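Contributing new complexes? Match this layout with heme C.
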Amino acid sequence: MKRRIIKFIKAYFACWLRNTQHSGLRTQHLLLSTCYLALLLAGCAAAPGSGDVANGKRIFNGEVVAQTQRGALPSCKQCHGIAVGASVSRGPNLVDIGKTAGTRVAGMSAEAYLRASIIDPDAYLVRSYQEGIMPKGYREALNDAQVEDLVAYMLTLR
Ligand code: HEC
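Output block (do not edit by hand):
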C-alpha cells in the first residue's frame, strides 16, 4: 500500500514536471490546486460552526435532557430568556447573544466564547452575575457534538 502511494506521488510529480513545460497546462494545474486549497480551507473554516441548529434548540429547551451521573441538569431555558424583556432572571437574557458573544472577551471568537460558557461557566463571568449559579455539569452531560449544536443555535439568536 505504502509503495503504491509513493509510486503515485512519483508519477504525479513526473507528470507535473512534464506539464510545466506547457504553460497552458501549468496554469490549469495551478488553478486546480488553488481551487482544491480554497475548498480545503473553506471546509476547515466551516468546522467550528458545524453544529445542528435544530438539535441545539432541542437541548436548550430541555427536550433533550442533559444527564450527569448525579442526575439531570436543568435546561438552559430555565435560567435564560431568549426574548426581549423575558422574565427569566437567574441567568442573563440571551436574546442577542449571537451578536454579543464575539465582543465579550477581547480576541476570542463568538464560537469559542459560547463553547467556554457551556463547559466552563465560571471562566468568564457576565457583569453583575455571581459564579456558581450556572451548573458546571454540562461538560460531563453533553458530548462535543451537542456542545457544537448549542453553539450553532445560540449564534442564531440575534
Ligand atoms: C441555573 C441557571 C442556569 C442554567 C440552567 C444555565 N445557565 Fe447559562 N448562565 C447562568 C448565569 C447565572 C450566567 C452568568 C454568569 C456566568 O457567566 O457564568 C450564565 C451565563 C451563560 C452564558 C454567557 C452569557 C453572556 O451574556 O455572555 C451563556 C452563553 C450561557 N450561560 C449558556 C447556557 C446554556 C447553553 C445552558 C444550557 C446548556 C445554560 N447556560 C444553562 C445561569 C444558568
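Reviewers usually confirm one structural detail per submission. For this one: The beta strands are 67-68, 71-72.
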